[in-house]
Amino acid sequence: MKTAIYPGTFDPITNGHLCILQKGTKVFDKVVLAVAEFTGKDSVLSTEERYNLCVEATKDLPGVEVQRFDGLVVNFARKVKANAMIRGLRALSDFEYELSQALMNKKLYDEIDTVFFLPESKYLYLSSTMVRQVMQLGGDVHDLIPNCVEEVLRRKFEQA
Ligand code: ADP
Description:
Layout: E1 3-8, H1 15-27, E2 30-36, H2 47-57, E3 64-69, H3 73-79, E4 84-88, H4 93-108, E5 113-117, H5 128-136, H6 147-159
Parallel strand pairs: 1-2, 1-4, 2-3, 4-5
């Protein structure tokens, strides 16, 4: 059984994340989408909301399980017996950060290798930050995010 984790903050999950996840399920038997409890960033969504949206957005994807994690991502990988970590690579700017993370994670836990997938070109410049900013200003990003994310964010920004 080949298990991989796909860790991130998913604040919120976007179609770019789902694109990477789908590619991952073609290579691995099981992909654990791992939602970080701590974002280290200013987030509009709570961990509960980020987790629930990931569950809802992936409910029809076979081979995907959503879990929350705290602390070192390699400890979580060990816990779920994963020996691969999936990450997405967008424009060049992701590369340096992702490379250093992958090397550090390998140093911390030699059993883990990071596997990178490229999204479809329409998602190459899509980020959760961009989605939050555009929706906050009333812009339409309908085709870039799952419906459940659009509903929750719209409600949140209307209330604010
Ligand atoms: P983190 O804060 O750990 O980078 P994110 O939730 O922002 O978490 O992203 C998780 C992973 O998904 C990262 O590897 C990121 O590069 C990747 N990712 C995010 N958006 C996209 C996208 N549009 N296309 C491809 N990969 C993406």
